[in-house]
Amino acid sequence: MAFKPQSDSEDAMSDINVTPLVDVMLVLVIILLVTAPLLTQSVNVSLPKTAETVADVKQQPLQLGIDAQGVITVNKEPQADLAALEVTLKNELAKSPDTGLHLYADQAVVYAKVAEVMATVQHAGITKIAFVTVEK
């Protein structure tokens, strides 16, 4: 803050001088523009060759689908009703306690049907539920 000699008619200057700040910021931008291309260059390294390995794939999650007519399927096998769905899910959970589930629901299905299916899935004991959608 700059002050002028005190006089009766003039007050202290209360404006901040931003010119030095702008100068410093422009210098920093120039330094960034000059050094950024230098950072993207890499060192050429000859990596050792190894045998191809197979990824350790855990059990695939269950594929639960609800089509436009409201038919429920688990791994493409139709389920008679929600009770049969719960029995099927409990059997799958008994085989593998870490079972996950991917839920495919047609956009024409009413939300109430999806909510009932989700409640049945949670009641069966499956806690890992993922919704599958299509990217626009």
Describe this structure in words.
- The structure is a single chain.
- This protein has 136 residues and is of the alpha/beta class.
- Helices cover 36% and strands 15% of the residues.
- It contains three helices and five strands; from the N terminus they run αβββαβαβ.
- The chain has helices at 19-39, 82-95, 111-124; strands at 62-66, 72-74, 77-78, 100-105, 128-131.
- A five-stranded mixed sheet has the order 3-2-1-4-5, covered by helices on one side.
- Helix 2 (82-95) runs parallel beside helix 3 (111-124).
- The chain is elongated and about 85 Å long.
- The two termini are 56 Å apart.
Order of helices and strands: HEEEHEHE
- What is the gyration radius calculated from CA atoms? 33 Å
- What best-fitting shape do the alpha-carbon axes yield? elongated
In the CATH hierarchy, the architecture of the domain at 62-131 is 2-Layer Sandwich
**Count of individual beta strands:** 5
| Unreliable stretches | none
Strand order of the largest sheet: 3-2-1-4-5
User: Distance between the terminal alpha carbons, to the nearest Å?
Assistant: 56 Å
- CATH topology of the domain at 62-131, anyone? Nucleotidyltransferase, domain 5
Relative strand content: 5-15%
CATH C-level label of the domain at 62-131: Alpha Beta
Structural class: alpha/beta
> Tell me about the biggest sheet?
5 strands, mixed
Give the number of helices.
Answer: 3
